[in-house]
Design brief:
Pfam families: Cys_knot. This is Glycoprotein hormone beta-5. The chain is mostly beta strands. 13% of the residues lie in helices and 41% in strands. Strand 3 and strand 4 form a beta hairpin. The two termini are 15 Å apart.
């Protein structure tokens, strides 16, 4: 069991480095250049995505979103569920909604598209009501 937990811990560290290891010298909103490979915390960062809706053409939107790494830990325990964990994610603390019109929509389709803009981000518990929370079993 101890070897399995150690292997799992190594796998998680490797995955976090792979998923969260962006290039050096990128900018966070309201900050000078920071080394994102070493940044621990949660901040507002510019993000571009493709807004899509059935019956409309997509539109690239640049907005502010939350980005970062938060202190997280797990340790094995003797009783079920055999792991004690303290997991926080970088998530929205304050947002405002912006609505745009998507281009070239079919006449039967409402062209409006609403998305959140991050105003403030913090490390917090992942709430499925506002965030897509990924879990591994």
């Amino acid at each position: 069991m101890e070897a399995a937990l150690l292997t799992y811990a190594k796998w998680r560290r490797r995955m976090c480095k792979t998923l969260l290891g962006p290039p050096d010298g990128l900018h966070l909103r309201g900050a000078s250049a920071v080394n994102l490979r070493r940044f621990i915390g949660c901040a507002v960062r510019e993000f571009t995505f493709l807004a899509k809706k059935p019956g409309c053409r997509g539109m690239h939107i640049t907005t502010d979103a939350c980005w970062g790494r938060c202190e997280t830990w797990e340790k094995p325990v003797v009783e079920p569920p055999y792991i004690e964990s303290h997991q926080r994610v970088c998530t929205y603390n304050e947002t405002r909604l912006v609505t745009v019109k998507l281009p070239h929509c079919q006449s039967s389709v409402d062209p409006t598209y609403t998305y959140p803009v991050a105003l403030r981000c913090d490390c917090g518990v992942c709430l499925t009501s506002t965030t897509e929370c990924l879990t591994f079993v």
